[in-house]
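Re: the 147-residue chain
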Amino acid sequence: MPAFNSMFNNESGVQHIGNFPLLPLRTRTRGPAYTLPQLPPNTPDLDLDPDSESYDILDEVLSLFRANTFFRNFEIQGSGDRALIYGILFLSECLGRMKPTMSQRDAEKALVNASLEQFSVPGEPGFPLNYAFEAPRDRQDAETLRQ
């Protein structure tokens, strides 16, 4: 059985840095990505329908994380798959920083501290998947990816 690929592989009009897409996000935070509409009031965000206009790559990462982490091989079919791989890698890193004995407050603190650390982007020596990602053109593009 093959791994699950991203439904965002064929998105048109998406800006790319290297071969990494800047896909739209459902967020209130300003950044380089296009902002999707917020969910209507009283709509649960954990079981969002993939056909919803507010469904974003982060929803897909959360829904496919468990299934895709069991696959040894993953065929990249488009730039959405690269965002999915990066999201799964990031989520794994977050889960690794939290411990079962941590309180919710301690876990949040650990994740906030992790988000403030300098991290490698594609093309830099510390990035674990350089074979699948192109490096940004310049320093400004690399900083855009970090946002």
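The chain has a mean pLDDT of 88.
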